Amino acid sequence: MIGVISYLVFFTTIAAILAIAVLGLNLQWGNTGLFNGGVAAFFGAGAYATILLGGTPQGEHIGGFEIFYPLALAGGALCAGLLAWMVGLLTLKLRHDYLAIATFGVAVAFESFVRNTSVMTGGALGLRGFERPLEALIENPFLYNILFLLVVVLVLASVYVFLQKLLHAPFGRLLRAIREDETAAQSLGKNPSEVRLTAFIVGSVIMG
């Protein structure tokens, strides 16, 4: 019975983590009309940065700075945001399918970078040997997985509430105005390029 529950807990945790990334994509695509085909790059950048900052040293690997885990999470999100800022400056003048193709190219380039920088990312095998956050403090694996799921669900709920408040604020209405008619929004004195870049960065930070 515990095995079945552990199985369900594992997949529920994965689903909750992916749901956080989907909320970021919804801000970009659903509310701003930015078809981001490079979600994997921003999600991966945040994940790698988090484990490299918060993990333990692993000999030949770069990273393992053992930073306090919430700070490592923030560092991963900032890394994803920095990548989004650089990508956004280069690609957000594109529209629709062209933006999707350009951002998908970023994901392909990121995958190639990961495969060829094994000293940092572990290459095709990924990063191994890193302990999960606070795993040493909770010896029971089943209890740890339950607590980890609760933390992930709490983060998911917090992100959802934050986005609901953001989207019901003037900024959220501006996003939808730009999505529906960018020219009309610009005629009212708004700066669509700046708003699109902001939404792209915020969405990517959430993914990371």
Please supply descriptive tags for the structure shown above.
208 residues; mainly alpha
Explain what this protein looks like in three dimensions.
This protein has helices at 2-30, 39-54, 69-91, 96-116, 118-121, 141-167, 170-180, 182-187, 192-207. The chain is built from 9 helices and no strands. The chain has a domain at 38-131 and 192-208. The two termini are 34 Å apart.
Task: Round the mean pLDDT to the nearest integer and report it.
Answer: 88
Distance between the termini: 34 Å
- List segments where confidence is low: pLDDT < 50 over at least 5 consecutive residues: none
Computed Rg: 19 Å
H/E element order: HHHHHHHHH
- Quickly give the structural class: mainly alpha
* Helix fraction by DSSP (H/I, runs of at least 4): over 70%
Form type:
globular
| Share in β-strands | under 5%
Q: Looking at the chains present, what oligomeric state does this protein adopt? A: single chain
The total count of strands amounts to 0
Largest sheet: none
Number of helical segments?
A: 9
